[in-house]
Amino acid sequence: MPLRLQGTVARTQSSLCHSCCAVTGAVRAFSVSAPALQVRPESPKFIEVPQPLQPRYPPRRQLKGILPVPRNLFPRRGPDKTSPEYLAAATPEPSSTKHASILARQPTEAAGFVAWKERMAATRRRNLREGLVELHHRKQRIDRQVAGRSAFTRAEHGRLVRQGKREDEALTDPTITQPMKVFQKGTVPDPDRLARIERRRAMVEAKELEKRESRRDALHTLYMNAGNFITTEDQLQKAIDRAFTKGPNPAWFNAGSANKDGESVWNLGPPETVHQMLSKANKTGGKAVEYNAGYAKLTGERVRRIAEELTGGKM
After folding, report:
1. Above 80 in pLDDT, residue 263?
2. pLDDT at position 15
């Protein structure tokens, strides 16, 4: 262990860390070997962290679980559990005839065990009687404390309600104008309150009417589409046979396709894109048949939608 010369230097401890508050001085070793550290690198205290001067109290430990609600041992309508009659019925004394019969049957060496059981039974009876009495005294003391706090709170509330104006309020009250008193007492006057309430009520009624119309339209749409619902096993079997046929599907035949058989749904072509639908509506497609087809189909679809809006339901 190398020898060291250490001097004392007084330092203030008002806003310094723990290491700065320690007494330090000029340290010089007489050997060229490295001094041995008292705190090793694996220790969490190897790096000095400044600590505040105010002490840190340990956090409150959170206990897991829920404690059961204690049972009320002294209900209002129950018997008086501190009366001699109740204690005598709850902790009856042993009968002498039973004790004599037990000793007659037991051998002499078992008399000590019977005496020990008697002492334990007497201790349990005494503990039960004293426990009931002490718990009743504790309940009465707690009830008196709660009643005292409640009475003090009511008295304090009544005193604050009945007290007059403070001296500063009484002296400065004449300097307050009548318009300023209106803002100091009660709610702020709102002349447009009734009109705003009526406007909000009308908005709520309109919103509720819109919801009712939306529900009615959804119900009518469900009724119109109910004709295509599958409700029986025969309809389900027909739908399965129509979608999953064993051979070529007749709905997938397309004479214009290279593969004319009905083994693939792609024989009907890919789905129509948005550009193709716009071209069909604006008559800008490259097909002469679609260009000269007219607007009868498109007009019929639009008329159907207009009729649905006018009648308020699907058609």
Report:
1. no
2. 46
Beta strands in the chain (DSSP E): none
What is the spatial distance between Cα 144 and Cα 106, in angstroms, rounded to a whole number? 53
- pTM (2 d.p.): 0.37
Nearest to residue 135, comparing CAs of 82, 178, 180? 82
* Cα–Cα distance measured from residue 181 to residue 173, given in angstroms and rounded to the nearest whole number: 9
Look-up of token digits 């049957």: 105
User: Does residue 34 register a pLDDT over 70?
Assistant: no
Grouping H, G, I as helix, E, B as strand and the rest as coil, residue 20 is helix
CA distances, 56 to each of 52, 53, 59, 158, 174 (Å): 8, 9, 9, 43, 54
Q: How far is the CA of 139 from the CAs of 42, 71, 72, in angstroms? A: 56, 13, 10
Residue 133 banded pLDDT, cuts 50, 70, 90:
very high
Rg (CA), the chain: 48
Residue 25 CB-half CA count within 13 A: 10
The SS3 of residue 4 is strand
Output DSSP code: residue 254. -
**Is the distance from CB of 226 to CB of 235 less than 8 angstroms?**
no
List residues bridging with 9 in a β-sheet: 24
Least confident residue range of 22-26, 67-71, 266-270: 22-26
Q: What b/e string do you get for 259-291 counting C-beta neighbours within 10 Å, with b at 16 or more? A: eeebeeeebeeeeeeeeeeebbeeeebeeeeee
